[in-house]
Amino acid sequence: MAYADQDTGHHEGSNKFIWKYVFSQDHKVIAVQYGCTAIAVGLLALVLSWLMRMQIGFPGSLEFIDPTAYYQYVTMHGMIMVIYLLTAFFLGGFGNYLIPLMCGARDMVFPFLNMLSYWFYLVSVIILMSSYFVPGGPTGAGWTLYPPQAILQGTPGADWGIIMMLASLAVFIIAFTMGGLNYITTILQARCKGMTLMRMPLTIWSIFTATVLGLLAFPALFVSAVMLLFDRLLGTSFFMPYIVHMGQAMETSGGSPVLFQHLFWFFGHPEVYIVALPAFGLVSDILSTHARKNVFGYRMMVWAILAIGGISFIVWAHHMYVSGMNLYLGFFFATTTLIIAIPTAVKVYNWTLTLWHGNIHLNTPMLFAIGFISTFLIGGLTGLFLGNVAVDIPLSDTYFVVAHFHMVMAIAPVMVVFAAIYHWYPKMSGRMYNETMGKIHFWVTFIGTYLIYFPMHYLGFEGMPRRYYAYEGYEFISESAQGLNEYITVVAIFVGVLQFLFIYNMAVSLKYGKKAPANPWHATTLEWQTPDTPPCHGNWRDNLPVVYRWAYDYSVPGAEKDYIPQNVPGGHTEEDIEHGGDPQGAPA
Amino acid sequence: MSGVIKTLASKPWLSGQDTVGAPADVEMFALPEQKVGLRVFFGVATSLFLLFIVSYRMRMYYEDWVPLQEPLLMWFNTGVLLFASVFMQLAKGRAAAASWQVAQRWLILGGAGAMAFVALQLLVWQQLAASGHFVSSNPSSSFFYLITAVHGVHIVGGILALAYIMLLSGGAEDRERYRMGIDLCTVYWHYLLIVWLVLFYMLLTT
Q1: Residue A199 · residue A210 · CB < 8 Å
Q2: Of B7, B135, B143, the CB nearest to A197
Q3: pTM of the full structure
Q4: Which of residues 101-140 of B touch A (CB under 8 A)?
Q5: Is the dihedral of CA A479, A480, A483, A487 positive or negative?
Q6: Which residues of chain B does A256 touch, with a Cβ-Cβ cutoff of 8 Å?
Q7: What ipTM goes with this model?
Q8: Which tens digit of pLDDT belongs to each residue from B22-78?
Q9: CB-neighbour burial class of residue A467 (10 A; exposed 0-12, middle 13-18, buried 19+)
């Protein structure tokens, strides 16, 4: 508690722009820095996806897209979206903003380290971007960076691009570690009085678990990146087998590309949950608030988060069924993959039951939250297909896989990113966004998602392989597939362009939006109870809040209002306390 | 462990267990946040070293692996690191007893021990290179250089932190931070010693 009690006056004397907004140690500023950088780099990845789609839908229409450029787009799009956008946004952005506020702390416990974390992240982004300016351009190895091909001559960016990519990842991991230490320690040690673990909002539980996953899983990426760098720069043979390249025997021999795959996916699968778990938590809080109902099965939700976190470390090889690994191993991983569906399904049921009999307000954050349930469910179900060895083998490396992971870990988390930005925007900026624009943004994104990705499942069933530069001349792909590809491209570009409406909405509302009340959604959690909106540096003026109840006292029978904030003392009514009434609130 | 399960089994929203209306006691580790943070970091570093160990063990079963003959000097290095850890422990004890000057002396020895270890490890590298074992000669030597380098980088990080803490020792108002810094460094030294013993054992026996 020592930190939470301490006064943060040592920053407040310095009001200069540079200390307030650039080298700030305020978790809220750092969160916004993380968020803005992630969105900026994400927009670039969005444009890359358009270029890819142009090549697939209208091959040859853009002359500058040669195979090299195409593979560079594929690689950079994937890596940016997964690591530099989603991971950074959920943990660096929402984690930073919400942990101290929701826990009732003044800031992260190590504010300086927190600031460093952002600057290291920025450096990693700069290294990644500068790979566009080195000879040969960025790597085109695919986001999984599999050796030997990733570092062989002939693969785009094999000279410099791959080195920049691996270096950037290493720096990102250092940045994440600094941030992660903060998130964990703050949640463990800086909660305000009364905020027991089981009174924490699910957002905090999920960010906590995702951070633990990240801290344990990112080292695997670090190890594989360092070893791959050694193979590339120093001629070692960690992963490089004996290769005859262009008629010449290479110096390397005996290495194991499958070892890299194991390391990569030991990181790669928890990574899915590093992105998904925060989304789960945020969406739980948003659903509960806008349905005016306590989240259904809070304790089960916490258990499910922890179970998913644990099991996510023993499913990784389901990404490797076609790598030639032992068949019995495949059986094991197929089983664990099906098992992890159980806690995940518990969460989906609980979200649905949270909505049941709720007083649902269909505003923009709620729409996106419900959109998330839908897209996550569809993406999750196709995951069951791919988790089974016998079904995965024919579908492996087809557009079915592309459709699956975009639904489950691209669109679904992005839905939550939007839901959460809309939901917390009034607190962050002190202004309301434009609701009409928000709703247009939702409907176009939501319907667009299905229009884009449903046909991809079909293309995958037909056998259309992913990562091909051109699809002409393959007899197993029907001619009509090209028509479908054109259509997907058109929709994707339309939906993509519309995302700028969101940015416009956010930017314009910052200045012209209606002034936001302190608690526009009538939410119970602590961040809405701050004395200032947006909260000042130090969050809580003189006194830290004291928590008297869990985070979900919505529509409590007999209570005056339909929500009771966590820091409001006393029972719900005199009668409640006397009779030990059940404050859950949901009528049977 | 039972505490965790008890926590997860509680139903704070039901009256009787954790009554609504009263601020409950908050479960926390009885440690300052710096020490908790360092322990979390140990979790990350342990994961990192374990993954190197796992990769090593997986790679060594391939045909081309030729076991490396480690230089005897490494035994001496291990002793130096052990003494560095002992010196740090002594510094910690003196700092707890507020005899700052003696503490400072042990600290210098602890830091010097760590620096000597790094220098001696470089000497080991030199010996290996002199006997024809370069980084790309065989996966066993590749791993040897890589793993000792990663461990060495962690030691160097510790030395930098120690240097920073020793700069703090000037003012009286910094005494608490100074003592905390010494505690953290000491634990870190011990941690890296244990990691080294595990790595050393693995390198020697394979």
Answers
A1: no
A2: B7
A3: 0.93
A4: 135-136, 139
A5: negative
A6: 58-59, 62
A7: 0.91
A8: 677 788 888 899 999 999 999 999 999 999 999 999 999 998 899 999 999 999 999
A9: exposed
